[in-house]
Amino acid sequence: xxxxSSRPGDNKLWGGHRLLLPEMREKAVGFCGECRFLVQIQGRxxxxxxxxxxxxxxxxxxxxxxxxxxxxxxxxxxxxxxxEEILKRGRPEAQACGLFQSRNQGF
Length: 107
Ligand code: SF4
Prior knowledge:
107 residues, alpha+beta, three-stranded mixed β-sheet, 4 helices, 3 strands, 12% strand, binds iron/sulfur cluster
């Protein structure tokens, strides 16, 4: 075996054995900014981004995930700590997690 083909990425045989389902590939290469669970949270003075996948109604897709939610509504649902958790995961540049759902998918 030559030194050139010793790395897995260089070996066509090895590369051919990797199987990535299309929906898993989307999750593996996606970013939070492309995910439907990343929504705008309207506060009193500013709009921030937050991930609402932890909210049963949206995470289970029982309800359409809105583009924007009011902070007061969230406060009523999950309390102050819940909102902080939602905002903590509101980073559009972050690598998508396993719960990623593309905004472009139909609902
Ligand atoms: S990829 Fe995961 S963490 Fe990011 S917005 Fe979607 S559900 Fe939230």
